[in-house]
Write a structure and sequence with these properties.
heterodimer, A: 145 residues, mainly alpha, 2 domains, 0% strand, elongated, B: 192 residues, Rna Polymerase Sigma Factor, Chain: A, 77% helix, binds zinc ion
Chain lengths: 145, 192
Protein backbone atom coordinates (compact mmCIF):
# COMPACT_ATOMS: atom_id res chain seq x y z
CA UNK A 1 0.00 0.00 0.00
CA UNK A 2 1.09 3.58 -0.78
CA UNK A 3 2.37 5.59 2.18
CA UNK A 4 0.28 8.29 3.85
CA UNK A 5 2.82 10.95 2.94
CA UNK A 6 2.71 10.19 -0.78
CA UNK A 7 -1.08 10.07 -0.75
CA UNK A 8 -1.32 13.32 1.21
CA UNK A 9 0.66 15.13 -1.45
CA UNK A 10 -1.71 13.87 -4.11
CA UNK A 11 -5.00 14.65 -2.38
CA UNK A 12 -5.24 18.09 -3.94
CA UNK A 13 -4.51 16.75 -7.42
CA UNK A 14 -7.09 14.03 -6.87
CA UNK A 15 -9.66 16.59 -5.80
CA UNK A 16 -9.02 18.56 -8.98
CA UNK A 17 -9.02 15.46 -11.22
CA UNK A 18 -5.45 16.15 -12.23
CA UNK A 19 -3.92 12.72 -11.58
CA UNK A 20 -3.06 10.15 -14.26
CA UNK A 21 -5.43 7.19 -14.08
CA UNK A 22 -2.94 4.86 -12.43
CA UNK A 23 -1.92 7.31 -9.69
CA UNK A 24 -5.51 8.23 -9.08
CA UNK A 25 -6.34 4.56 -8.58
CA UNK A 26 -3.46 4.09 -6.12
CA UNK A 27 -4.46 7.12 -4.02
CA UNK A 28 -8.10 6.05 -3.98
CA UNK A 29 -7.08 2.58 -2.83
CA UNK A 30 -5.05 4.08 -0.02
CA UNK A 31 -7.92 6.31 1.05
CA UNK A 32 -10.24 3.32 1.25
CA UNK A 33 -7.94 1.55 3.68
CA UNK A 34 -6.54 4.47 5.68
CA UNK A 35 -9.14 6.26 7.78
CA UNK A 36 -6.94 9.26 8.52
CA UNK A 37 -6.33 10.01 4.85
CA UNK A 38 -9.97 9.38 4.11
CA UNK A 39 -10.91 11.94 6.74
CA UNK A 40 -8.39 14.45 5.36
CA UNK A 41 -9.68 14.03 1.85
CA UNK A 42 -13.29 14.33 2.93
CA UNK A 43 -12.64 17.46 4.98
CA UNK A 44 -10.56 19.06 2.23
CA UNK A 45 -13.32 18.43 -0.27
CA UNK A 46 -16.10 19.62 2.05
CA UNK A 47 -14.18 22.75 2.99
CA UNK A 48 -13.11 23.76 -0.50
CA UNK A 49 -16.60 23.08 -1.81
CA UNK A 50 -17.95 25.93 0.29
CA UNK A 51 -16.32 28.37 -2.11
CA UNK A 52 -19.27 28.13 -4.43
CA UNK A 53 -21.77 28.69 -1.66
CA UNK A 54 -23.46 31.93 -2.49
CA UNK A 55 -24.67 34.39 0.08
CA UNK A 56 -25.99 37.79 -0.89
CA UNK A 57 -26.18 40.52 1.70
CA UNK A 58 -28.89 43.12 1.59
CA UNK A 59 -27.68 46.69 1.95
CA UNK A 60 -28.43 48.51 5.17
CA UNK A 61 -31.43 50.84 4.67
CA UNK A 62 -29.68 53.57 6.68
CA UNK A 63 -26.56 53.52 4.53
CA UNK A 64 -27.21 56.83 2.78
CA UNK A 65 -28.17 58.65 5.99
CA UNK A 66 -25.00 57.44 7.69
CA UNK A 67 -22.78 58.44 4.81
CA UNK A 68 -24.49 61.84 4.68
CA UNK A 69 -23.84 62.31 8.39
CA UNK A 70 -20.19 61.31 8.09
CA UNK A 71 -19.67 63.68 5.19
CA UNK A 72 -21.22 66.48 7.24
CA UNK A 73 -18.82 65.68 10.07
CA UNK A 74 -15.90 65.83 7.68
CA UNK A 75 -17.08 69.21 6.38
CA UNK A 76 -17.57 70.48 9.90
CA UNK A 77 -14.08 69.45 10.88
CA UNK A 78 -12.71 71.49 8.03
CA UNK A 79 -14.66 74.56 9.24
CA UNK A 80 -13.76 73.96 12.88
CA UNK A 81 -10.06 73.52 12.29
CA UNK A 82 -9.25 77.25 11.93
CA UNK A 83 -10.94 77.87 15.31
CA UNK A 84 -8.70 75.27 16.92
CA UNK A 85 -5.73 76.95 15.38
CA UNK A 86 -6.91 80.34 16.67
CA UNK A 87 -6.85 79.04 20.23
CA UNK A 88 -3.85 76.77 19.89
CA UNK A 89 -1.53 79.22 18.19
CA UNK A 90 -1.08 81.74 21.07
CA UNK A 91 -0.77 78.87 23.55
CA UNK A 92 1.88 77.21 21.42
CA UNK A 93 3.66 80.54 20.89
CA UNK A 94 3.92 81.32 24.61
CA UNK A 95 5.07 77.77 25.25
CA UNK A 96 7.86 78.14 22.70
CA UNK A 97 8.78 81.51 24.21
CA UNK A 98 9.06 80.05 27.71
CA UNK A 99 11.07 77.15 26.32
CA UNK A 100 13.50 79.50 24.58
CA UNK A 101 13.87 81.68 27.71
CA UNK A 102 14.44 78.69 29.97
CA UNK A 103 16.79 77.16 27.44
CA UNK A 104 18.90 80.29 27.17
CA UNK A 105 19.16 80.47 30.97
CA UNK A 106 20.36 76.88 31.08
CA UNK A 107 22.75 77.47 28.20
CA UNK A 108 24.13 80.61 29.86
CA UNK A 109 24.75 78.58 33.01
CA UNK A 110 26.74 75.92 31.22
CA UNK A 111 28.73 78.44 29.25
CA UNK A 112 29.66 80.32 32.43
CA UNK A 113 30.92 77.07 33.90
CA UNK A 114 32.90 76.24 30.77
CA UNK A 115 34.26 79.73 30.69
CA UNK A 116 35.31 79.47 34.33
CA UNK A 117 37.11 76.19 33.64
CA UNK A 118 38.71 77.49 30.47
CA UNK A 119 39.92 80.60 32.20
CA UNK A 120 41.73 78.56 34.87
CA UNK A 121 43.52 76.25 32.48
CA UNK A 122 44.26 79.10 30.15
CA UNK A 123 45.90 81.28 32.79
CA UNK A 124 47.84 78.31 33.99
CA UNK A 125 49.29 77.44 30.65
CA UNK A 126 49.85 81.02 29.65
CA UNK A 127 51.85 81.62 32.77
CA UNK A 128 54.04 78.69 31.96
CA UNK A 129 54.51 79.83 28.48
CA UNK A 130 55.35 83.34 29.42
CA UNK A 131 57.77 82.15 32.05
CA UNK A 132 59.50 79.87 29.61
CA UNK A 133 59.76 82.57 27.08
CA UNK A 134 61.03 85.01 29.59
CA UNK A 135 63.59 82.57 30.84
CA UNK A 136 64.67 81.76 27.37
CA UNK A 137 64.91 85.36 26.45
CA UNK A 138 66.90 86.15 29.53
CA UNK A 139 69.29 83.29 28.87
CA UNK A 140 69.68 84.32 25.29
CA UNK A 141 70.43 87.83 26.30
CA UNK A 142 72.97 86.63 28.84
CA UNK A 143 74.59 84.29 26.37
CA UNK A 144 74.76 86.94 23.74
CA UNK A 145 76.41 89.29 26.13
CA UNK B 1 -29.32 58.59 -15.33
CA UNK B 2 -26.17 57.21 -16.94
CA UNK B 3 -22.97 56.89 -14.94
CA UNK B 4 -21.52 59.83 -16.83
CA UNK B 5 -24.42 62.06 -15.89
CA UNK B 6 -24.24 60.87 -12.30
CA UNK B 7 -20.56 61.77 -12.09
CA UNK B 8 -21.11 65.22 -13.57
CA UNK B 9 -23.91 65.96 -11.13
CA UNK B 10 -21.94 64.70 -8.14
CA UNK B 11 -19.07 66.94 -9.19
CA UNK B 12 -21.58 69.78 -9.04
CA UNK B 13 -22.45 68.73 -5.48
CA UNK B 14 -25.92 67.51 -6.35
CA UNK B 15 -26.97 65.32 -3.45
CA UNK B 16 -29.73 63.45 -5.25
CA UNK B 17 -27.18 62.18 -7.80
CA UNK B 18 -24.94 60.89 -5.03
CA UNK B 19 -27.92 59.14 -3.46
CA UNK B 20 -28.73 57.56 -6.80
CA UNK B 21 -25.16 56.34 -7.19
CA UNK B 22 -25.29 54.75 -3.74
CA UNK B 23 -28.61 53.07 -4.52
CA UNK B 24 -27.15 51.71 -7.72
CA UNK B 25 -23.88 50.35 -6.34
CA UNK B 26 -24.45 49.66 -2.65
CA UNK B 27 -25.22 45.94 -3.05
CA UNK B 28 -22.15 45.45 -5.21
CA UNK B 29 -19.87 47.28 -2.76
CA UNK B 30 -21.31 45.60 0.31
CA UNK B 31 -20.97 42.11 -1.13
CA UNK B 32 -17.47 42.75 -2.44
CA UNK B 33 -16.35 43.98 0.98
CA UNK B 34 -18.05 41.00 2.58
CA UNK B 35 -16.22 38.60 0.27
CA UNK B 36 -12.95 39.92 1.65
CA UNK B 37 -13.96 40.55 5.25
CA UNK B 38 -16.45 37.70 5.93
CA UNK B 39 -18.13 39.88 8.51
CA UNK B 40 -21.35 41.76 7.93
CA UNK B 41 -20.83 44.63 10.31
CA UNK B 42 -17.27 45.30 9.11
CA UNK B 43 -18.46 45.07 5.51
CA UNK B 44 -21.14 47.68 6.24
CA UNK B 45 -18.60 50.02 7.84
CA UNK B 46 -16.21 49.71 4.92
CA UNK B 47 -19.08 50.22 2.46
CA UNK B 48 -19.70 53.62 4.05
CA UNK B 49 -16.02 54.47 3.70
CA UNK B 50 -15.99 53.40 0.06
CA UNK B 51 -18.80 55.80 -0.85
CA UNK B 52 -17.25 58.61 1.17
CA UNK B 53 -14.04 58.11 -0.79
CA UNK B 54 -16.04 58.06 -4.05
CA UNK B 55 -17.66 61.36 -3.10
CA UNK B 56 -14.47 63.06 -1.96
CA UNK B 57 -12.33 61.97 -4.88
CA UNK B 58 -14.87 62.09 -7.70
CA UNK B 59 -12.76 64.78 -9.37
CA UNK B 60 -9.87 62.34 -9.63
CA UNK B 61 -12.01 59.78 -11.46
CA UNK B 62 -10.70 59.07 -14.94
CA UNK B 63 -13.64 59.14 -17.34
CA UNK B 64 -11.99 56.54 -19.56
CA UNK B 65 -12.45 53.87 -16.91
CA UNK B 66 -15.80 52.38 -16.04
CA UNK B 67 -17.38 53.78 -12.90
CA UNK B 68 -18.07 50.28 -11.55
CA UNK B 69 -14.41 49.29 -12.09
CA UNK B 70 -13.25 52.34 -10.17
CA UNK B 71 -15.66 51.64 -7.32
CA UNK B 72 -14.56 47.99 -7.22
CA UNK B 73 -10.95 49.08 -6.86
CA UNK B 74 -11.77 51.37 -3.98
CA UNK B 75 -13.79 48.61 -2.31
CA UNK B 76 -10.97 46.06 -2.68
CA UNK B 77 -8.32 48.48 -1.40
CA UNK B 78 -10.38 49.62 1.56
CA UNK B 79 -11.17 46.02 2.51
CA UNK B 80 -7.55 44.88 2.27
CA UNK B 81 -6.35 47.91 4.22
CA UNK B 82 -8.88 47.11 6.91
CA UNK B 83 -7.60 43.52 7.09
CA UNK B 84 -4.00 44.75 7.26
CA UNK B 85 -4.81 47.17 10.08
CA UNK B 86 -6.64 44.45 12.01
CA UNK B 87 -4.21 41.65 11.35
CA UNK B 88 -2.74 41.69 14.83
CA UNK B 89 -6.17 41.29 16.37
CA UNK B 90 -7.11 38.53 13.93
CA UNK B 91 -3.95 36.54 14.61
CA UNK B 92 -4.70 36.58 18.30
CA UNK B 93 -8.26 35.51 17.56
CA UNK B 94 -7.22 32.55 15.41
CA UNK B 95 -4.57 31.40 17.87
CA UNK B 96 -7.19 31.58 20.55
CA UNK B 97 -9.53 29.55 18.37
CA UNK B 98 -7.03 26.73 17.92
CA UNK B 99 -6.17 26.52 21.59
CA UNK B 100 -9.67 26.61 22.96
CA UNK B 101 -11.14 24.02 20.60
CA UNK B 102 -10.64 20.31 21.12
CA UNK B 103 -8.27 18.75 18.63
CA UNK B 104 -10.23 15.85 17.21
CA UNK B 105 -13.67 16.70 18.40
CA UNK B 106 -14.29 19.48 15.94
CA UNK B 107 -13.46 17.42 12.90
CA UNK B 108 -16.00 14.71 13.42
CA UNK B 109 -17.53 13.99 10.09
CA UNK B 110 -21.11 15.10 9.92
CA UNK B 111 -23.53 12.20 9.96
CA UNK B 112 -27.25 11.74 10.27
CA UNK B 113 -27.20 11.55 14.03
CA UNK B 114 -25.90 15.08 14.36
CA UNK B 115 -28.37 17.73 15.33
CA UNK B 116 -29.00 20.76 13.14
CA UNK B 117 -27.05 22.93 15.55
CA UNK B 118 -23.98 20.67 15.33
CA UNK B 119 -24.17 20.75 11.57
CA UNK B 120 -24.36 24.51 11.64
CA UNK B 121 -21.32 24.61 13.91
CA UNK B 122 -19.45 22.26 11.62
CA UNK B 123 -20.34 24.38 8.63
CA UNK B 124 -19.18 27.54 10.35
CA UNK B 125 -15.85 25.92 11.21
CA UNK B 126 -15.25 24.74 7.68
CA UNK B 127 -16.09 28.21 6.42
CA UNK B 128 -13.65 29.76 8.91
CA UNK B 129 -10.99 27.33 7.74
CA UNK B 130 -11.62 28.24 4.11
CA UNK B 131 -11.50 31.97 4.87
CA UNK B 132 -8.31 31.53 6.83
CA UNK B 133 -6.72 29.72 3.89
CA UNK B 134 -7.78 32.48 1.49
CA UNK B 135 -6.60 35.09 3.96
CA UNK B 136 -3.10 33.64 3.87
CA UNK B 137 -2.78 34.13 0.11
CA UNK B 138 -0.49 36.78 -1.34
CA UNK B 139 -2.24 40.07 -2.08
CA UNK B 140 -2.71 39.70 -5.86
CA UNK B 141 -3.76 36.05 -5.64
CA UNK B 142 -6.20 36.96 -2.90
CA UNK B 143 -7.80 39.75 -4.94
CA UNK B 144 -8.11 37.70 -8.14
CA UNK B 145 -9.34 34.57 -6.36
CA UNK B 146 -11.86 36.40 -4.19
CA UNK B 147 -13.32 38.44 -7.03
CA UNK B 148 -13.60 35.38 -9.27
CA UNK B 149 -14.63 32.65 -6.86
CA UNK B 150 -16.59 34.57 -4.22
CA UNK B 151 -17.82 37.53 -6.22
CA UNK B 152 -18.41 35.52 -9.42
CA UNK B 153 -16.56 38.06 -11.54
CA UNK B 154 -15.40 36.80 -14.93
CA UNK B 155 -11.68 36.66 -15.77
CA UNK B 156 -12.23 39.66 -18.05
CA UNK B 157 -13.80 41.69 -15.26
CA UNK B 158 -11.08 40.73 -12.78
CA UNK B 159 -8.43 41.67 -15.36
CA UNK B 160 -10.05 45.07 -15.80
CA UNK B 161 -10.33 45.75 -12.07
CA UNK B 162 -6.75 44.64 -11.43
CA UNK B 163 -5.40 46.25 -14.59
CA UNK B 164 -3.81 42.97 -15.69
CA UNK B 165 -3.99 40.75 -18.76
CA UNK B 166 -6.45 37.85 -18.78
CA UNK B 167 -3.68 35.18 -18.84
CA UNK B 168 -2.08 36.88 -15.84
CA UNK B 169 -5.39 36.67 -13.98
CA UNK B 170 -5.82 33.01 -14.98
CA UNK B 171 -2.36 32.27 -13.61
CA UNK B 172 -3.09 34.06 -10.36
CA UNK B 173 -6.38 32.24 -9.83
CA UNK B 174 -4.86 28.84 -10.65
CA UNK B 175 -2.02 29.35 -8.16
CA UNK B 176 -4.42 30.73 -5.60
CA UNK B 177 -6.67 27.68 -5.88
CA UNK B 178 -3.78 25.29 -5.28
CA UNK B 179 -2.45 27.41 -2.41
CA UNK B 180 -5.84 27.56 -0.74
CA UNK B 181 -6.17 23.76 -0.93
CA UNK B 182 -2.61 23.32 0.32
CA UNK B 183 -3.30 25.62 3.23
CA UNK B 184 -6.54 23.85 4.13
CA UNK B 185 -4.74 20.49 4.09
CA UNK B 186 -1.90 21.89 6.20
CA UNK B 187 -4.28 23.13 8.87
CA UNK B 188 -6.34 19.93 8.75
CA UNK B 189 -3.23 17.79 9.23
CA UNK B 190 -2.32 19.74 12.35
CA UNK B 191 -5.75 19.16 13.79
CA UNK B 192 -6.33 15.54 12.81
ZN1 LIG C 1 -3.06 7.32 5.02
Amino acid sequence: MQSCKISNNKLIALLNNELPAEESKAVKEHIEKCSRCEKLYFELEQTYMLISEKRILKPNPYLYTRIEQKLKNIEQEKVLRPKYIQVLQPVLFSFVLILVFWGSLKLGDTYTKIYEQDKNTLTYSTEYYLNDLEQENLELILLND
Amino acid sequence: MTDKELIEQIKNKKESAFKELIDKYQAMVLNTCYSFLHDKSNAEDITQEVFIEVYLSINKFNQKAKLSTWIYRIAVNKSLNFIRDNKKRNIIKSIDYFFTEGKNKELQIADDTQSGLDKEREHKKRLDLLHQAIGNLKRKQKIAFTLNKLENQSYEQVAEIMDLSIPAVEGLIHRAKLNVQKEILKILKKKL
